[in-house]
UniProtKB/TrEMBL annotation:
The keyword Protein transport is assigned to this record: yes
Function: Component of the exocyst complex.
Record-level GO cellular component terms: exocyst
Molecular-function GO terms, alphabetical: phosphatidylinositol-4,5-bisphosphate binding
Protein family: Belongs to the EXO70 family.
Protein's name according to its UniProt entry: Exocyst subunit Exo70 family protein
SUPFAM superfamilies tied to this protein: Cullin repeat-like
GO biological process, one term: exocytosis
Region (Disordered): 114-134
Keyword check for Transport: yes
Limits of the Exocyst complex subunit Exo70 C-terminal domain: 234-603
Amino acid sequence: METPENNRGYESAEKIILRWDSTASEEGRERMIFGTDRQEADVYLQAVDEIQRTLSSASISDCSHNVDADDQLKVNTTIQIAMARLEDEFRNILIIHTSALEIDSLFDSSTSFSSSTPTHHELEDDEDCISDDSGSSRNNLLQLHHCESSDSSTYRTSSSIREVDLMPAEAICDLQAIAMRMIAAGYLRECIQVYGSVRKSSVDSSFRKLGIEKLSIGDVQRLEWEALEGKIRRWIRAARVCVRILFASEKKLCEQIFDCVGTDIDDACFMETVKGPAIQLFNFAEAISISRRSPEKLFKILDLHDALMELLPDIEAVFDWKSSDSIRVQAAEILSRLAEAARGILSEFENAVLREPSRVPVPGGTIHPLTRYVMNYISLISDYKQTLIDLIMSKPSTGSRYSGDPSTPDMEFTELEGKTPLALHLIWIIVVLQFNLDGKSKPYRDVSLAHLFMMNNVHYIVQKVKGSPELREMTADNCLRKLTGKFRQAATSYQRATWVSVLYCLRDEGLHVSGSFSSGVSKTVLRERFKTFNAMFEEVHRTQSMWLIPDGQLREELRISISEKLLPAYRSFLGRFRSQIESGKHPENYIKYSAEDLETAVLDFFEGYPAS
């Protein structure tokens, strides 16, 4: 072998290397080789190749003891200078070709290429579904065409993944050429570190623009839920962009640069770039999944679950290398914990409805806040029907539930055969709510008001069920008939409790003393009947005008029902006995109202007027 001193090719290559040595050359400090003169870059790469060939030959000769130690040292020093320079060039190319991504357009493209079902509750992202591409496999889509000046689209898609070309083809070629020489010279670790540090900074910058904060699991769990709700909504949108575009594009770039090297460096560089950001991204969802459970969290947890379930195939596609196992496992475990949290919250909600302890009567017998809360909650649950059907796998046993326990209602499931477990959960919550409302009606001192309270609340339940197509579909027809019958029975019970005693004053029994029907009426008893009726009606009017039926149609129906019983009875009684009262003294003290007056007064009932 020729020694470096006798090798003209080596000497020429060494001069080129030393010319660009930034520690010894002013030109090397002030200029970069790549990106200025294409010919200079090619010459430098050829010089590096020559030095590496010399180094390889020297290593072979060293085994035969045919090379001088000084010559070996000289070659090693030269290659070290070359690698230091290439490392700087590698870093510089990465930096100058790292540009900020347009976040707004990323949101648009992530949404357009989403394959998800629409999000629920307060989420505003309406998404179009897209079917999987047929024909070519993902491996074909990701096939690398080295150093092509491609005229193809900036985006490549696979299902909902949308990859962005992060660098121009010429820059990729330069990076690829440098990486091959650094790795051949044994500088694999340095190559990975430089690549990872620059690209991770770019990913971190995109995270900041996406609003993804650096929060630990503890930080997330210390936030108030109201603050977290907005963060969850932003996280869902950002996660779609991160997985489908940002991470996918970073993986594509790694493959474009490093696939040709023939090692697992593309895998290593990808994880060096995105592992930290990916953990940061998923730590937020993990913190939510293990946070303290409460009913108000259910819907955001379901939103998170749906979003992560939708993203899971994309996560598995993007993080499909062995070194990415931890990311795939973390995502799957979070999904499982979110599902368990949702099931737990639903079960705890049932118990909370059953045990809700307030026994202070609601003024006016109106709809109890618990009724509104529970039924609105159930309506929202029905919006997540498919998700919850998938999550709730265990079906309550047939037969009576909690049969024989006086502190819980009974429910026969035999008549609900064929209903999904979710439907049975919702029906059970309604049964539990009714049971609780029965208890809340007991403190009312006025029995009529207790019946009105039950009528209002059960009617509200019925209207909420009828008003939600999803809830009505899940609720058995028999269950809805029972609910309708219950509020009608409460209305009937109210009328009996209030008006039977009032109408009792208008009966004929007890008015006749003896003799014929017309001549045997006791005026004293008759006057007392009119006075009693007036007093009772005035008391009913005074109290029940302060009671409230919020539903206008129900209020009008009950007034009509009252009028249909009261007015004919009063007209008949007045028609039969008016002459006896008017023939005596001060008839106005006894006949205070016409039938029209009563009809007008009934219109004041259930308006919730303040006490006067």
